[in-house]
Write a structure and sequence with these properties.
Length: 139
């Protein structure tokens, strides 16, 4: 961890508060989880909407690895495998959620996973923009 001296105060190198030390992006993981739950809930009929949702899910599985980060990036295969396990679990959870709608849960809860996708995506965009715009010291 680099430490820079700025006047009398020492400032630590830029470190995102929402990532773990191995570079695993927590904010995009929540978006991935809720998107996979929504996909598992609605992927019963294989239509164009399910295909587009699957493409988006695969992109969200892989592309956050390439976001800029000051931390050292982990091995790509292990990183994608971890996110793949989370996505597979969430898809199974979404299928169970679909089965519970109408019998255990009210039918109005059908839109809850997409609502959480939208909220977490907005939060993730905010955190990514703050990380890009944040003041950084010259090296």
């Amino acid at each position: 961890m680099n430490t820079y001296i700025l006047g009398a105060a020492s400032v630590q190198a830029h470190r995102n508060n929402y990532t773990v030390d191995n570079g695993f992006a927590v904010d995009t993981t929540f978006v991935l989880f809720f998107l996979a739950v929504d996909f598992g809930q609605s992927a019963i009929g294989l239509g164009l909407d399910s295909l587009l949702s699957l493409v988006m899910l695969l992109m969200l599985l892989v592309l956050p690895y390439f976001l800029p980060s000051v931390n050292e990036k982990p091995e790509f295969g292990a990183w994608v495998a971890g996110r793949g396990v989370i996505a597979a679990f969430a898809i199974a959870l979404g299928a169970m959620y679909h089965g519970a709608l109408g019998s255990v849960l009210p039918e109005a809860f059908r839109f809850l996973p997409m609502t959480f996708v939208i909220l977490t995506a907005m939060l993730s965009c905010y955190l990514q923009f703050c990380a890009i715009i944040r003041f950084r010291l010259a090296r």
